[in-house]
Amino acid sequence: METVTFDLEKTPLREVNQYLHSDAAELDGKTVTITNPGGAHNIAVGLKADVDVVIDGHAGYYAAGMNQVANVVIEGSAGTGVAENMMSGRVHVKGFASNAAGATAQGGLLVIDGDAGLRCGISMKGVDIVVGGSVGSFSAFMAQAGNLVILGDAGEALGDSLYEARIFVRGNIQSLGADCEVKPMDEEARQILVKLLKESGHADVDPDSFTLLGSARTLYNFHVDNAGAY
Amino acid sequence: MSDAPKIPQTEPRYSATFDKNTASEIRRAAATGIYDIRGAGAKRKLPHFDDLLFLGASISRYPLEGYREKCGTDVILGNRFAKKPIHLKTPVTIAGMSFGALSGPAKEALGRGASAVGTSTTTGDGGMTPEERGQSSILVYQYLPSRYGMNPDDLRKADAIEVVIGQGAKPGGGGMLLGQKISDRVAKMRCLPKGVDQRSACRHPDWTGPDDLEIKIAEIREITDWEKPIYVKVGATRPYFDVALAVKAGADVVVLDGMQGGTAATQEVFIEHVGIPILAAIRPAVQALQDLGMHRKVQLIVSGGIRNGADVAKALALGADAVAIGTAALIALGDNDPHLEEEYNKLGTTAGAYDDWHEGKDPAGITTQDPELMKRLDPVKAGRRLANYLSVLTMEAQVIARACGKSHLHNLEPEDLVALTLEASAMAKVPLAGTSWIPGVSQF
Ligand SMILES: Cc1cc2nc3c(=O)[nH]c(=O)nc-3n(C[C@H](O)[C@H](O)[C@H](O)COP(=O)(O)O)c2cc1C
After folding, report:
1. What is the pLDDT of residues B357-378, one digit of tens each?
2. Which end of chain B is more exposed for a tag (fewer CB within 10 A), N or C?
3. Pick the CATH number of B45-428 from 3.90.1580.10, 3.50.50.60, 3.20.20.70, 3.30.2130.10
4. What CATH number is attached to the domain comprising A89?
5. pLDDT at A57
């Protein structure tokens, strides 16, 4: 397998991203390693080829933003909005992720080994997110579709104004947001959880140690008696 | 029979404060317990372009000949950073209106009309439809807080990208699309359950504040390889600061929308009471651009109640590079047309006043997702009407510019204008007609 290496201390980010936007013929099957990322913003955004990218250190905002197909590994931690609006592919953060990880993402798998900050999975639209550690407050706010798996604890207002996304939590929940409620773990949900645990390197974790949360759907249509929740 | 003199009765008198409309709203609120939601923009009378007049040429300046001498109308947008700036033949663009709020045929008609005269259309909260991309030769793709339907393929298909921070009808508010309009197709595009009363977010999910915005704009530029112009749209509230911050964040174009600007569905109280009229917003916005040395380098598009070529010319004279229209474009397509009076009556309203666009029952087939109703709009004919109307706006603006001796609409300037009212004079910073007085700027 061919490896191409860019040193971000020597090569401007623009050139690296431009290369990563090359035709599939150029990129497919390659591994691109980016050294000395130094927390730069917007590394490996807008990828659309079947390429492996390794960011060898910490990334700033929006790393792997809008990812399609590609497999991106961040060896260090990631800033705000990692894998925001991802469509497909896989993004793996080995360290911690800051706020809004996986925001609005529509597909693919985002794996965060450490903790994630505030608003993890905000407005998510179909992505699967697995967080090895804990998530901050307002996570899965207005989450529309997809699955958020949290192995650690969750902060305040988890799943506020939730639509049809599922949330699985193993640890403590500080508080649930408006319209988010505990659901019985049905077989379909359990299977999804088992699959995601396996795909994210947590095959040994007991799926029965998780609580499933979903939308109570009481805010789906305006009603005067819900005025306090709007 | 008594022949005592009859005591004259005073005419029943309505309160100016509690007028009929106000009282009916109180009764409606009392009956339902929920605020009134409607479409369109502010309906009350506000200081506006009508309060300004042009000083035509005379002895001290000479005019250009009507049909013989050229008066340019084209505009280039986005040449600050974008590799592929946009070149429009007329400075009148079609504002962002979502598929969802509008029907597929309405979006197609907007595309047809705009393309025919060489201008752009804009998507909206709900993503890009093939109808619109197919018919719009120049399409601006909105990047909104909800990110409904946002995807990198469409980003690459767009000719420009508009990061929406706010809208004049509801600065600080998010979108609304009520259940009646969440059809299967709309639900799928937005990834929502069918029939929900959808409230879109009012803040972007992955950034807050101007420093983050700068990184966000850089991200979009990186994804699109620095090809596309990036616009930033704000509702008019604190235009000086918002424009300065948008420029600092790296915008190629700033879109400024005043409180008269239309909306698909917003609380009435929001529409009428938040934000400022576009007349008051243009000069501070232009001042910010000038203070940064960016006037005409970062282009300014203004909107909110633009109706005719005079409005276009006045907006440009105050320093804008282009304008955008929403409500007027819908009227040109056939919205609120008197020939549908009977049907408007059935909905409890009258042609010209129909604004319950969120209910999706539009008899004109424009603000609806009902398959039967939307069939009524012929996108080819409606597109033609829009093209005609856009041509009229452009020609009318040229008539005025030539009368002021200008060989391009962009040569119009504040010195060509006076104000009819003190308010307009203070807001637009042009002298009260017949005086050299600008309140707040010069002494009487
Ligand atoms: C039906 C309708 C839908 C709209 N949808 C959006 C939208 O999705 N995004 C947006 O930024 N503005 C939206 N707007 C506001 C317009 O982009 C524009 O700012 C406004 O219509 C300009 O004012 P005017 O209607 O007086 O011309 C909408 C307006 C209307 C009338």
Report:
1. 999 999 999 999 999 999 999 9
2. N
3. 3.20.20.70
4. 2.160.20.60
5. 98
What is the distance in angstroms between the Cα of B188 and the nearest Cα belonging to chain A? Answer: 11
A98 touches B: beta carbon within 8 Å: no
pLDDT at B19: 95
- Pocket lining for ligand 1, CB < 6 angstroms: B 39, 41, 95-98, 101-102, 124-125, 142, 164, 167-168, 233, 257, 260-264, 303-306, 324-328, 367
Residue A230: inside a domain, yes or no? no
Quick check: is A28 in a domain? yes
Percent residues over pLDDT 70 in chain A:
97
Please indicate if any CB of chain B lies within 8 Å of the CB of A80: yes
Q: What is the pLDDT of residue B283?
A: 98
Closest approach of B144 to chain A, Cα-based (Å): 11
Domain ranges of chain B: 45-428
CB contact under 8 A, A122 and B205: yes
A62 touches chain B (CB under 8 A): yes
Number of domains, chain A: 1
Query: Looking at per-residue confidence, does A68 or A2 come out higher?
Result: A68
Q: Is a pLDDT exceeding 70 seen at residue A203?
A: yes
Distance from the alpha carbon of residue B225 to the mean position of ligand 1, in angstroms: 29
Task: Write a three-state SS string for chain B.
Answer: CCCCCCCCCCCCCCCCCCCHHHHHHHHHHHHHCCCCEECCCCCCCCCCHHHEEECCCCCCCCCCCCCCCCCECCEEECCCCCCCCEEECCCEEECECCECCECHHHHHHHHHHHHHCCCCEECCCCCCCHHHHHHCCCEEEEECCCCCCCCHHHHHHCCEEEEECCCCCCCCCCCEECHHHCCHHHHHHHCCCCCCCEECCCCCCCCCHHHHHHHHHHHHHHHCCCCCCEEEEEECCCHHHHHHHHHHCCCCEEEEECCCCCCCCEEHHHHHHCCCCHHHHHHHHHHHHHHCCCECCEEEEEECCCCCHHHHHHHHHCCCCEEEECHHHHHHHCCCCHHHHHHHHHCCCCCCCCCCHHHCCCCCCCCCCCHHHHCCCCHHHHHHHHHHHHHHHHHHHHHHHHHCCCCEHHHCCHHHEEECCHHHHHHHCCCECCCCCCCCCCCC
Q: Among A42, A122, A222, whose Cβ lies nearest the Cβ of B34?
A: A222
- Within 8 A of A103 by CB-CB distance, chain B residues are 147, 205-206
Q: Which domain holds residue A173?
A: 3-219
Average pLDDT, chain B: 95
pLDDT of B1 over the 60 cut: no
Which among A46, A48, A126 has CB closest to B191? A126
Prediction ipTM score: 0.96
The answer to whether residue A226 is domain-embedded is no
- The answer to pTM > 0.90 is yes
